[in-house]
Amino acid sequence: MKLINRLAAGIGFAALTSGIVFGAGARADDFHRDRVTNVYNTNDIRRDEARLAELQRRHDRARREHRWNLMHDLDRQITALQAHINDERASTRNDRRDRDRDRDHDRNQNQNHNRNDHGQDSN
After folding, report:
1. Which residues, 6 or more positions from 105, have their beta carbon under 8 angstroms from its beta carbon?
2. What pTM did the predictor assign?
């Protein structure tokens, strides 16, 4: 019975330790995920802008052809898409600002930590 308990405790400790070790590595790769997310957001915005340009061309054509119902439908779609693009831009800006702030905070924490390791005052 004692052997089984020791074996279970050893396996549990190994699982806990590996979770901590591998979790730290996942955090280190977080900067890459942030960059990829921002690239996707930028690509989404560019796709939406291309779609907006197409809607505006269709709107102009509908106006020239006096297709007022279609023109008003396109107006609503254009307005909604412009609002969506503006929201995405603001979200991307906020994500970048937050990422930069976190990076600067981590850099300052590391500098202060290194000063304390060498016996220097962190003030």
Report:
1. none
2. 0.53
Rounded to the nearest angstrom, the gap between the alpha carbon of residue 47 and the centroid of all alpha carbons in its chain is 18
- pLDDT surpassing 90 at residue 70: yes
Secondary structure (3-state) at 101 = helix
Q: Are 71 and 90 in contact (CB under 8 A)?
A: no
What is the residue type of 24?
A
44 within 8 A of 95, measured Cβ to Cβ:
no
Q: Report the alpha-carbon angle 98-90-56, nearest 5.
A: 155
**How far apart are the C-alpha atoms of 61 and 55, rounded to whole Å?**
10
Rounded to the nearest 10°, the torsion over CA 79, 82, 87, 93 is -160
pLDDT digits (tens, 9 = 90+) for 21-54: 565 555 555 555 555 556 667 889 999 999 999 9
The Cα 98–Cα 1 span in angstroms is 53
Contact 71, 59 (CB under 8 A): yes
